[in-house]
Amino acid sequence: MTTSESNCCGAAKGKVAEFNSQEIANTLNALAKFGVHDDKLVELLCETAKGRVVEFNSQEIANTLNALAKFGVYDDKLVELLRGAAKVRVAEFNSQEIANTLNALAKFGLYDDKLVELLSEAAKARVVEFNSQEIANTLHALAKFGVCNDKLVGLLCGAAFPLVAEFSSQGIANTLNALAKFGVYDDKLVELLCGAAKGKVAEFNSQEIANTLNTLAKFGVHDDKLVSLLWGSQKEGCRVQLAGDCEHSERTREIRGA
Question: FRET pair for 243, CA 20 to 30 Å: which of 91, 140, 160, 258?
Fold first, then answer.
């Protein structure tokens, strides 16, 4: 944490009791985006939020859950209160809020069947608003829950077609992985995602490579070009890792020998 970040966090701690719902959500969201995790400030914000949950709108609910999930902070009482608030306000959720809330619950490993059902129904009415990341995150979350809502999955797959070029490596891997978990083989979408993957192979991390190769195997898809590119990228990643490990070991030996 930089000095300026530390000063800002320190100032916020002294004023937390005065924060309204928007200020709580915005502060948590900003900390998550900056990658700044001040344990004490997050704890204080969570405690203040518990007394103001009735004030939270859909965006504030989603942003707070999303920030806590990014921090890996599971405050069971606050999450329970926010889930309750979300059920009341679910009709107000936009595509981003739906996707972020489902994604946060999935990261927490928390399956609230009623909330997931309500958010899934809301998603069906807003599918045209979903961008590539929201499509991928929603499918990924549902797959983690083991919930295959045939109607919603079909709508999301249809929405993905014109947006395939916008999918990130993570989005491609997560979408393919979700479809495999659902046992849904949409040949056209899989073909398009494979095509997009070929142009983004350099961006794939090891987990995304492994998940994509595993999915192709499950589907019985023999895309030799993509498999070759992914396998080559995986081997290159291993060589880089091995080189890094060797360099680290050499430095360690030098230090110990000094």
Answer: 258
Q: 82: closest CA among 96, 111, 108, 62?
A: 62
> What is the full per-residue pLDDT of the chain (258 aa) written as tens digits?
677 777 778 888 999 999 999 999 999 999 999 888 889 999 999 999 999 999 999 999 999 999 999 999 999 999 999 999 999 999 999 999 999 999 999 999 999 999 999 999 999 999 999 999 999 999 999 999 999 999 999 999 999 999 999 999 999 999 999 999 999 999 999 999 999 999 999 999 999 999 999 999 999 998 999 999 998 876 665 444 444 444 544 444 443 344
CA separation for the pair 181, 142 (Å, rounded) = 10
Domain ranges of the chain: 1-92, 94-202+213-220
Can you give the pTM of this predicted structure? 0.87
Q: What DSSP line would sit under the chain, residue for residue? A: --HHHHHHHHHHHTTGGG--HHHHHHHHHHHHHHT---HHHHHHHHHHHHTTGGG--HHHHHHHHHHHHHHT---HHHHHHHHHHHHHHGGG--HHHHHHHHHHHHHHT---HHHHHHHHHHHHHHGGG--HHHHHHHHHHHHHHT---HHHHHHHHHHHGGGGGG--HHHHHHHHHHHHHHT---HHHHHHHHHHHHTTGGG--HHHHHHHHHHHHHHT---HHHHHHHHHHHHHHHHHHHHHHHHHHHHHHHHHH-
Distances from the Cα of 62 to the Cα of 92, 117, 145, angstroms: 11, 16, 18
Q: How far apart are CA 258 and CA 224, in angstroms?
A: 50
